[in-house]
């Protein structure tokens, strides 16, 4: 429309069109062509707009400064449409999120100023939402820029907009283009209009609150570890080598000795008497380690680190209480039960996406069926593992959240080898208690970035690449995978086989991928985890290897003879 051309600053073109044979309206694409020709001096009245001020556009409102010529060219390029593509979402807007201001783009036929900027204050965000409502916008797309998108998301959510939060890396890979705030918001709107963007996962508000408490707790745990390093530095300066004879100075023996030193005790014999019987180092070794130069300055820094350490742990306790209160508000979720056809679909997903297809279904089955297959030895091993898992770890929450986890998820995730209460909480606080956002376990594994990233063409793998990501669920599962290196379970045997075949990091990723699938099946399908044991896994792997050798020998026209029995196969 002529009004649209006028809104981007080409007033002389609009006036010229009005004076020509009743032309009062043109299409957006025709307007763009005229704008391009006008920029080259091929259209418009002679001498019109020849000054430096030609080609300016106001996008900030009536009192806002005009766009420069370069910005107008960027706006022109971003608004070009492809006749071969049919828009899917027409009532959309794009927002380029910034720390101080946000650029908002709407379709050109919705407002005289299709691009406007709004501040970061709450009244400015409400003004943005009202303007989008006035432009008949139904859906809004924005990039997940830091944490600056959170206030905008919350305000727009109150006004009933359908919000699509996208990863900035995905929009950058669509096409090569220049980077600017004006062009970014228009580019986002255009991609969303044609349905070329997929949204990020945003949990519900109650899960977000629980996630905030848990992430704050993780930050405090890291800060407490930093204070322990400060304590070790002070001890090293005094040549008190207790941190070299104790595996962890934050244990009972270490804390008792450090607090006694800060209370004024200097006698190594008295301090060594505080040794717990579980400490491997002898009392004589402790006496030697506790003999040092107790100077005033290192003692002061040690006291400062200890006070900060105690304060941080009080803060962690408050986070645990808040987390317990928030989890108590979740409804009790019964153990999930699905129809047989849905379960079969989940099984097909496992067979299609797992890297160990030859050992499909090795760990998950009903308890009674597994006991019948593997006997009472594995069953006793399982009971022993359950007793071991009840031991509290150092950073475990001060309140018992295991029962709350079982109540809100309907299953006990800690029965899986390597999955502790902390790991289960990390997954639930990030993804929610039901994992309903992912229809299949393949999609969940892909979201965690633990699934193999293979480039396949023509049925052949051309390239294997690693997906770099800061996914917190993947990080937690990798830590859990490292803890089962010496486990005598089936998944422990799988880890050792993958480590010998590939490498340490690759084996950790493979086991973390397997753990992600087990967790998904337990929560979504109600399948129970039962460890079949290392012996069962090795027998299955040996049978698979034997079958492969027999198949290859038959293909080459040979027969295999058992060296022990002489049986020909």
Compact overview of the structure:
Helices cover 53% and strands 6% of the residues.
Task: Give structural notes.
The protein is 53% helix and 6% strand. By secondary structure, it is of the alpha/beta class. It has four domains: 1-55, no CATH class; 60-200, 2-Layer Sandwich (Nucleotidyltransferase, domain 5); 206-328; 340-547, no CATH class. The strands form two sheets. Strands 3-2-1-4-5 form a five-stranded mixed sheet. Strands 6-7 form a two-stranded antiparallel sheet. Strand 6 and strand 7 form a beta hairpin. It is flat and about 85 Å long. It starts with a helix and ends in a 13-residue tail after the last helix.
Quick tags:
569 residues; Nucleotidyltransferase, domain 5; five-stranded mixed beta sheet; two-stranded antiparallel sheet; 23 helices; 7 strands
Helix content: 40-55%
Number of domains: 4
- What kind of sheet is the major sheet? 5 strands, mixed
Count of extended strands: 7
Structural class by helix and strand composition: alpha/beta
Tally of DSSP helical segments: 23
Could you name the ranges where pLDDT drops below 50 across 5 or more consecutive residues?
Answer: 1-29, 37-66, 339-389
Oligomer: single chain
Fold blueprint:
Blueprint: H1 2-7, H2 11-18, H3 28-39, H4 69-78, E1 92-96, E2 101-105, E3 115-119, H5 122-134, E4 139-143, H6 149-158, E5 162-166, H7 168-172, H8 181-193, H9 205-237, H10 242-245, H11 252-262, H12 268-272, H13 283-289, H14 296-328, H15 340-353, H16 367-389, H17 402-409, H18 421-431, H19 441-447, E6 453-457, E7 460-465, H20 472-482, H21 490-501, H22 504-525, H23 534-556
Helix pairs in contact: 4-8, 5-6, 9-14, 9-18, 18-20, 19-22, 20-22, 21-22, 21-23
């Amino acid at each position: 429309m002529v009004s649209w051309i006028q809104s981007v600053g080409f007033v002389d073109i609009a006036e010229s069109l009005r004076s020509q044979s009743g032309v009062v309206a043109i299409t957006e694409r025709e307007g763009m062509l005229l704008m391009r020709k006008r920029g080259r001096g091929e259209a418009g009245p002679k001498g019109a707009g020849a000054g430096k001020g030609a080609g300016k556009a106001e996008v900030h409102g009536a009192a806002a400064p005009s766009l420069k010529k370069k910005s107008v060219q960027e706006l022109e390029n971003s608004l070009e449409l492809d006749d071969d593509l049919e828009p899917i979402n027409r009532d959309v807007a794009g927002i380029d999120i910034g720390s101080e201001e946000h650029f908002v783009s709407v379709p050109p036929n919705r407002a005289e100023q299709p691009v406007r900027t709004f501040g970061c204050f709450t009244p400015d965000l409400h003004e943005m939402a009202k303007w989008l409502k006035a432009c008949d916008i139904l859906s809004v797309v924005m990039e997940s820029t830091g944490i600056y998108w959170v206030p905008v998301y919350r305000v727009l959510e109150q006004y009933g907009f359908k919000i699509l939060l996208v990863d900035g890396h995905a929009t950058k890979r669509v096409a090569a283009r220049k980077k600017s705030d004006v062009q970014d918001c228009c580019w986002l709107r255009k991609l969303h209009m044609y349905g070329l963007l997929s949204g990020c996962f945003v949990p519900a508000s109650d899960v977000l609150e629980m996630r905030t408490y848990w992430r704050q707790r993780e930050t405090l745990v890291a800060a407490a570890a930093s204070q322990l390093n400060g304590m070790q530095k002070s001890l090293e300066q005094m040549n008190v080598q207790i941190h070299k004879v104790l595996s962890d100075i934050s244990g009972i023996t270490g804390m008792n000795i450090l607090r006694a030193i800060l209370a004024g005790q200097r006698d190594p014999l008295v301090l060594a008497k505080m040794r717990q019987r579980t400490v491997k180092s002898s009392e004589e070794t402790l006496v030697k380690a506790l003999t040092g130069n107790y100077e005033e300055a290192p003692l002061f820094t040690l006291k400062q680190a200890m006070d900060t350490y105690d304060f941080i742990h009080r803060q962690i306790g408050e986070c645990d209480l808040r987390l317990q209160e928030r989890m108590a508000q979740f409804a009790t979720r019964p153990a999930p039960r699905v129809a047989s056809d849905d379960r079969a679909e989940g099984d097909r997903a496992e067979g299609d996406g797992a890297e160990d297809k030859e050992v499909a279904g090795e760990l998950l089955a009903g308890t009674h069926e597994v006991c019948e297959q593997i006997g009472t030895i594995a069953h006793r091993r399982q009971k022993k593992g359950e007793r071991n898992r009840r031991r509290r770890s150092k950073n475990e929450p001060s309140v018992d959240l295991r029962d709350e986890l079982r109540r809100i998820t309907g299953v006990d995730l800690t029965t899986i080898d390597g999955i502790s209460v902390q790991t289960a909480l990390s997954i639930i606080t990030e993804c929610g208690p039901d994992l309903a956002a992912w229809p299949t376990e393949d999609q969940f594994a892909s979201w965690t970035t633990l699934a193999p990233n293979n480039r396949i063409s023509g049925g052949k793998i051309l390239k294997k690449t690693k997906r770099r990501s800061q996914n917190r669920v993947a990080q937690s599962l990798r830590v859990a995978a490292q803890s089962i290196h010496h486990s005598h379970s089936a998944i422990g045997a799988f880890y050792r086989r993958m480590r010998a075949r590939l490498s340490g990091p690759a084996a950790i990723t493979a086991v973390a991928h397997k753990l992600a699938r087990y967790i998904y099946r337990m929560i979504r399908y109600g399948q129970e985890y039962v460890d079949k044991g290392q012996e069962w896994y090795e027998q299955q792997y040996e049978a698979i290897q034997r079958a492969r050798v027999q198949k290859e020998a038959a293909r080459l026209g040979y027969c295999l003879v058992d060296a022990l029995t002489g049986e020909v196969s």
